[in-house]
Amino acid sequence: MAKIRWTAEAEQWLRGIYEYIAEDNPDAALRTIEAIYEKVQLLLDFPEMGYRYHQRPDRNIRILLYGHYRIAYLIKPAKDIDILGVFHGALDIEQYLTL
């Protein structure tokens, strides 16, 4: 069975999202992070559910949408999944996905 691995960068993005939302509403921040984790768990059964990131056609990088966020992930040859980052929709992710 495939495994999901969160990169250190992805975990940093999640912490930043949590901290930003928690300034106004810690409960909402926790719900948001938990919902992102739940959305990512769907990849275990449907790894290609996100759309293909066309800026890197040489890699199987995909983007999964959750609310205002884009979850970037890489499907590795052995079908394991690396979560690369969680980006707000307004952010230009091009500079962050140069693997």
Report what the structure shows.
- The protein has 99 residues and is an alpha+beta fold.
- Helix content is 31%, strand content 26%.
- It has helices at residues 8-22, 26-41; strands spanning 4-6, 51-52, 61-66, 69-75, 81-88.
- The protein has a 5-stranded mixed β-sheet.
- β3 and β4 (69-75) form a beta hairpin.
- α1 (8-22) packs antiparallel against α2.
- The model has no long low-confidence stretch (mean pLDDT 90).
Topology:
Blueprint: E1 4-6, H1 8-22, H2 26-41, E2 51-52, E3 61-66, E4 69-75, E5 81-88
Parallel strand pairs: 1-5
Antiparallel strand pairs: 2-3, 3-4, 4-5
Structural class: alpha+beta
Number of strands: 5
- Major sheet attributes: 5 strands, mixed
Radius of gyration: 13 Å
Quick recap:
The protein has 99 residues and is α+β, with helices and mostly antiparallel strands. The chain contains two helices and five strands. Helix 1 runs antiparallel to helix 2 (26-41).
Annotation keywords:
five-stranded mixed beta sheet, alpha+beta, YaeB-like fold, 99 residues
